[in-house]
Fold each of these.
Amino acid sequence: MSKLQAIRGMNDILPDQTPAWQFLERRVADVLVRYGYQEIRMPILEQTELFKRTIGEVTDIVEKEMYTFADRNGDSLTLRPEGTAGCVRAAEQHGLLFNQVRRLWYTGPMFRHERPQKGRYRQFHQIGVECFGMNGPDIDAEVLLLTARLWQALGLTDEVTLQLNSLGSAADRQRYREALLEYLQQHQEQLDEDSQRRMATNPLRILDSKNPQTQALLSDAPALADYIDQDSRDHFQGLCALLDKAGLAYTVNPRLVRGLDYYGKTVFEWVTDRLGAQGTVCAGGRYDGLVEQLGGRATPAVGFAMGIERLILLLQTCEVLPESATADADIYLMTMGDEAFGYGLALAETLRDALPERVIINHCGGGSFKSQMKKADRSGARLAIIIGDQEMTAQTPTVKDLRQGGEQQPIAVSLLADHCRQLLA
Ligand code: ATP
Ligand code: MG
């Protein structure tokens, strides 16, 4: 090994970034709990077969993006590229779906061998939600209102918009696929390279090609909406009516298809124009056939996953992270000499009791007041508390406001916590 280097496309999330991650994860978890969701934690590795059977053999993910390897006993294992397959596997294996509805959520790393770029990585993180056992548009609407509340909790409501579509049933998509292919075959030479390849594998994905010429060509193509059955139409209309009633704005995007085979009926994406090409921050839909396809009882389901990296980028781009989502300290306590250190150590504990929401750093490792002051400044702390022999004897630690200027002031130790609380408020 020549140079210490992480795997390409796999990022360390460094201490100056983790406060933003914690902010996001906490806010999202709070909202999910309030809607009655239960957390589930699955392994990162699953049998390769599970992903092939769920995501689909001819999808981008299974064709070229999976991290697959042979276990020591020869089993083919894959680092999960998404969470739905493992969640369904776990729920089914442990009988969580039998005669009951479930609202589940999970979070963790996912792995896809893609070309790394801004907002696209080989290890990335999702928070996912899966609801089982409910087949009406009621739960679809609830899920979408939940996502809207997530953006509200994160301060992103003005940055994202909702796109909706219905993919109909598997039979509808099969009929539509044939019609679309027939149309595209007449214009094959005008299609971009990627789309030409998809004609043989997954022609529906051509609909969301980013190529302008391909998009122009598609404006005269048969429309999926004309091929979906009455049941899917009613479902979609029901959903739209519920969203209208709830006042949640959306755009119907007839070209919205998802990259995974298991979706049918409702599909949706929350997109932003602030992140360039990687503008989808949350995506999901209904997958009523998946549980049965994996050998369980037919169980309707709907879910979504959001990309944490993209949401963090968005929070940073829009500068909506609250001040609390930083790693900054509030109080930096410095002492001179062994005895004062012991005194300060105990005092810091008292302050932590009195100010439970504040970050208090106790300077360790000695050094002059000057060098301690430099570290206090670098910690981002608003206040320094300084204790030498004199302050200790007089029971009056000195408090200095490091950001607003002002004199340093001796404060009676009994009043110290209140004094700090006031200054920090
Ligand atoms: P895209 O069209 O951007 O490739 P996708 O359709 O492959 O997305 P999904 O499988 O639906 O994405 O995953 C849900 C969300 O996870 C995406 O909307 C995105 O926010 C995030 N995501 C997907 N792939 C990556 C990746 N390689 N790096 C970072 N985030 C990702
Ligand atoms: Mg993708």
Note: The first strand starts at residue 38 and ends at 39.
Amino acid sequence: MPEHFPDTFRIPLPDDFHVHLRQDEPLRVYVHDLASSFGRAIVMPNTTPPIRNAADLRRYRDEIIDAAAGYPWFTPLMTFKIAESHSAGQVRQLAAAGAYAGKLYPQGATTNSEDGVPDIRAAWPVFEAMQDSDLVLCIHGEDPTSFVLDREDAFLPVLEEMVRDFPRLRIVLEHITTSRAVELIRSLPDTVAATITVHHLLLTLDDVVGGFLNPHVFCKPIMKRPEDRAALAEAALSASPKFFFGSDSAPHPVGAKENACGCAGVYTAPVAMPLLIDFFERHGSIAGLREFCCERGRRFYRLPESDYEVSYSRKPWTVPERYGVVVPFRAGSTVVWTGSRPEPVQGG
Ligand code: NCD
Ligand code: ZN
């Protein structure tokens, strides 16, 4: 039975294990929108130019920390974009610079992945080096040569090979969307986990192209069938430690979305927590919400409990039509939950 939540409740400050903060001036705005609701975030490296080496990673982290002045609870967790040319020495330098993860983009799979990896097996030595440095491998798990709805499932055999060949490597299959991916993640060892976004928990392909075309919910991997969404919901609500929250919040200016060559990505950072709370109130419990947003991801990434907590109240607000030049997820609609400013845990 779903639990009716009290009108105000407190949880540890949630973390976001997959987010895009971009670069230059817009970065300041995106950091603000994210850091208002989250304590830590795994920051994706598909900037222009990409984050490839230790110097890039340090510079990008400094920019984010600078933009996050005023949000003392916020810590960016940095990643680099894997190239098959990365040497073991470069991987060690990235680990020494404080990287938490390397991100594998199959070439052409999504936004800014033209410089991704064309032949995944050619990157096996990089995975070996990451395993030795105890870095997490984050994967955009789609085979871009397959039919669009089959791309994630077509990638799963490659994941199984990786797990077989790198038994100590911690792997996160990012933003999973299919029931087969859920099933496979469940069956694999504890070194393998998956992130789930809020938009894939709430939408299907019908919401993208079933009526009028809605470019603002077009993303990679594309939304799937109702039974896939049901499998994701079951995974998020389950007691499994393997499924945790990663928003994949991915802002694009409105002109790049409402365009004949519309970019993939949904901007969910400002509304993700209210929508997740609503989802868990309809289908789960506060304990489940807390596991999904505050505990499982940080355990997988071996991070301590948050030093901050936040209280949420049933105070409806209307999602603005724009955050700067970006149309957010659920623009113009009413969401029910409002978060407080995060506060240090008392006696923590
Ligand atoms: C992301 C982006 O815009 O950077 N887009 C998306 O559709 N999810 C990249 C990604 O995570 O695939
Ligand atoms: Zn992403």
Note: The mean pLDDT is 98.
